[in-house]
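User: quick one
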Amino acid sequence: MRRTGFLDAVGGLGRHDHVCWVFTTSGEFRSAAGRFLTDGLAEGLRVMYIADAPGDHELDAVDGFASARASGAAQVLDLRMYGSGVVDPVAQVEAYAAATEQALADGYTGLRVAADATALVRTPDGRDAFARYEHLVDAYMTRHPFSAMCGYDLDDLGPAAVAELACMHPLARRSSTALRLHATDEPGIAAVLAGEVDVLGHAQLRGALNRVELADTDGEVAIDGRDLAFIDHRGLIQVVEHIRGQGATTVLHVGPRSMARPLAGLLRLPDLRVAVS
Amino acid sequence: MRSGAPAGSAGIFHEAAFYGSDEEFLAVVLPFLRDGVAAGEPTVSLFGDRNQQLVRDALGTGSGVVFIDGGRHYLRPAVAIRRHREMLAGYVADGADQVRIAGDVPHPGVGVPWEWWARYESAVNHIYDDFPMYGLCPYDTRTAPPEVIDHARRTHTHVVSADGQRARSLAYQDPRDFLATVTPWVEPIETGPPAIELSDPSPGQARAMVGTLQETASLSAEDRDGLLVSVNEAVTNAIRHGEPPMVVRAWAQPGHAVVTVTDRGRGPADPAAGLMPGDGPGGLGLWLMHQLCAYVSLQRGPEGFTIRLIAGQP
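Assistant: Done. Structure below.
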């Protein structure tokens, strides 16, 4: 079972989990990465630590990491292997898919990565490409034993830039983003929209919607809103208008006590259906 | 062809009547309803329980008059407007030349604060003007406070008496002018200090405040969600369209919560703001508040513009 929600610690995450870890010091990132990756080693996963020009021994202080490196279970890699420009989302997913397959072939239970991707997302184009990649790889993760922790430096990037990326994850620190738009392996659901959407997140939501492909079934796009604690009318209209733009209608799945039900009832958007489950 | 007094005119024909007895009430309402049926026009009786029963008893069955429960229809002005417009549009689509509606809006004489019904009676002169509506609003002089009677003359273009005498109301005011004179009623809980006061809160902080209020107010889930959405909309409007600083104040007691959002701007320019899902800035959010809260008051004052939201019983 994949975990979703807001969290403040990276312990105990599973083979399909995808967490965004926003940090303010590199020590903080290394500490979280160390925890995340040693959990992975304990699960029999091959693990990779990726950062901007890291030293090979950067995580050796973490219990068991040095011997894992020696055995090949753990690798330290340079972020620059992605290239120095804007990432190619599809190619990047394919690369991790291949690495996951290789890990399985080598007798591991899957692959786990902790990466400080700050250097790749300093520009708007870089963020756009990387956010698209985040969603594509998120979808891959729902069906394969690949798990990842994506680190972003808050002081380097600023809260708005960090939020653009954090919101593409099923798991993130609450302080980094109020809303999340992510993938799911549940059949018939195009994406999950969670958290809270209000005026401070409208631009962020618009950006996120532009960076995902929403599959439609018979002209209807299904969004899982069961973890949507709040959405305002403009946010809801924004979702419906985006999906209308691709020629489809929207079905929003919510819980029985969701505030989206009375709101949708008043708005009476012709191409919005609210389904309670 | 429109029958009766509105013959030859377009849009809403908005007529008030004043009665001091059941006989006077029926004397003005029954001809209105019977003439409508005789002319083949959709004719609706939309009164509260007591008056509705008087009409039913007088007309008997098979009168051709459509009876709609005034209590539910006139729950909130924004709700009444939506229901009216849907009804009017439906009849017009079916070919009606005129639709007659006789009804009484709530007022303090029946225990409901007048303020947003005053706004309603004025705003409908524009809001229903899209339709060939003949509206008759009888006011009970035994129970309606003097202010309500005065406002009735200023919000209806015509007045008809129990003996059928009809005249233009000389006191009628354009909605824009009338609405500038409407002042909010005093909510007793506001005379005490607020339980919570927030300066320039984010919408999220304001929403969290509603959760805190709920601990005291224990509103129904529906009312709590309505207040949550409304507070968020009011704060959002202040951020997007108002001027800082913004102050949010809140009071609660069991079954009742009051939240005010004040900013230094002038508030919405549209006199019908909130009563219709307006195109103007913040219009849809304001309309949502009017649908979801027990009462909404808008006021311009020296501090700026204040929206007061009431959840639970007003």
